[in-house]
Design a protein that fits this description.
It contains five helices and eleven strands. By secondary structure, the protein is α+β, with helices and mostly antiparallel strands. Strands 1, 2, 3, 4, 5, 6, 7, 8, 9, 10 and 11 form an eleven-stranded antiparallel sheet that branches. It is globular, with a radius of gyration of 26 Å.
Length: 214
């Protein structure tokens, strides 16, 4: 029995060396040798949606930087930021909008996937598309946004130069303490916000404990 096992081991080693010299190791040899690679991880629908959303929000951020170069400094120096890719529409009497986005804590690298929804009364036809970018000046503002959600009630003040941020937030609107918003439409940076009644909240379907490179 011992001799048979020794012969089998020798045969396996010889076969492995022979096929390795050709640059190919059959799966049956890999399995016998205990070197067969693990099966690839299954990519879920949520994985694909997260990947697609990361790409879209990254492009939206680059578009903001292109249209308003000063915004790059504002976001780099912020506690965190959020980017929403917004598809809004108005049809008949009832109009509404929806979108998805990501909020990033730049201190911890935590990534939070979020949704936005809007419902309003309005007459008219047509489709309006825009991206929304939030800048959070402190931890309290960011944490409140991702834990409680937030609804834009229409109160906004155009950002002015100050001793803390300088003019880096030019083109944005302060919508809450420690919180600024940019809205970028297909025509450029919005001179006034048109997202009154929009609610921003956590996307329970897409969130996992992820950390992104800052």
């Amino acid at each position: 029995m011992k001799k048979a096992k020794t012969m089998a081991a020798t045969l396996l080693a010889t076969l492995t060396l022979s096929v390795a010299s050709l640059g190919v190791v059959p799966a049956v040899v890999q399995a016998a040798a205990g070197t067969q690679p693990a099966a690839a991880a299954t990519v879920t629908k949520e994985d694909r949606e997260r990947a697609e959303l990361r790409t879209k929000t990254y492009r939206a951020l680059l578009d903001l930087y292109k249209r308003n170069p000063k915004s790059r400094k504002a976001i780099q120096n912020a506690f965190g930021y959020a980017v929403f890719v917004d598809t809004s529409y108005s049809a008949g009497i009832l109009g509404g909008g929806h979108g998805r986005g990501r909020a990033i804590n730049q201190h911890s690298g935590r990534e939070v996937f979020m949704k936005m929804g809007e419902m309003k009364l309005g007459l008219g036809l047509g489709v309006r598309q825009s991206n929304i970018i939030f800048v959070f000046g402190n931890e309290d503002a960011f944490n409140s946004f991702i834990t409680r959600g937030w609804t834009f009630g229409g109160q906004a003040v155009a950002a002015a130069e100050d001793g803390v941020h300088g003019d880096s937030l030019e083109g944005s609107f302060q919508v809450a303490p420690g919180m600024w918003m940019y809205q970028v439409t297909t025509k450029g940076l919005a001179a006034e916000l048109s997202v009154k009644g929009t609610r921003f909240y956590v996307d329970k379907d897409l969130n996992v404990n992820t950390v992104v490179n800052r």
